[in-house]
Amino acid sequence: MYCRGIRGATTVEHNDRDEILAATSELLHTIVERNDLRTEDIASAIFSVTDDLNTAFPARAARYMGWIDVALMCTREIPVPGSLGSCIRVLLHVNTERSAAEMRHVYLKGAVNLRERDI
User: Fold this and answer.
1) Which of 20, 35, 36, 44 is the most exposed place for a label (fewest CB within 10 A)?
2) How many domains does the chain have?
3) Active-site residue set
4) Rounded CA separation 44/91 (Å)
């Protein structure tokens, strides 16, 4: 059994609590589906948001999905000039028998160009 990382990102149109939670939920559901994960496979998740998003913790969406025993943390993205705004990123750590090359990273909405090779 290995611990592998799965990356993902999405964007929102507004700094709105419900929109942030809905976008995060969509991102997490998509990652889980594309990687055929069970909640018990997920060891932890680190969420980051850009400076322009501050009305909700993205980790709350994971809790609403039932990720009660998953270690979660939220942080701020580094404000690099010219970087994508209104962006929510996640790094999941999952326990799996699959190789790192088999992990499917997910980029939605305005974040699709962050890692074109992962689409």
Assistant:
1) 36
2) 1
3) 7, 63, 74, 77, 89, 107, 115
4) 8
Q: Tell how many helices (H) and how many strands (E) occur in the chain.
A: 2, 5
Structure tokens that stand for 90 in this block: 């996640």
Alpha carbon 28 to its chain's center? 6
8 A C-beta contact, residue 42 and residue 67: yes
Give the separation between CA 112 and CA 13, rounded to whole angstroms. Answer: 15
Domain carrying residue 82: 2-118
Separation of alpha carbons 62 and 67, rounded Å: 5
Tell me the C-alpha distance between 67 and 71, whole Å: 9
Which contiguous run of DSSP H or E holds residue 92?
Answer: strand 87-96
- Pairing of β 71-76 and β 2-11: unpaired
Q: pLDDT tens string for the chain (119 positions)?
A: 899 999 999 999 999 999 999 999 999 999 999 999 999 999 999 999 999 999 999 999 999 999 999 999 999 999 999 999 999 999 999 999 999 999 999 999 999 988 754 43
Give the CATH number of the domain where residue 18 resides: 3.30.1330.40
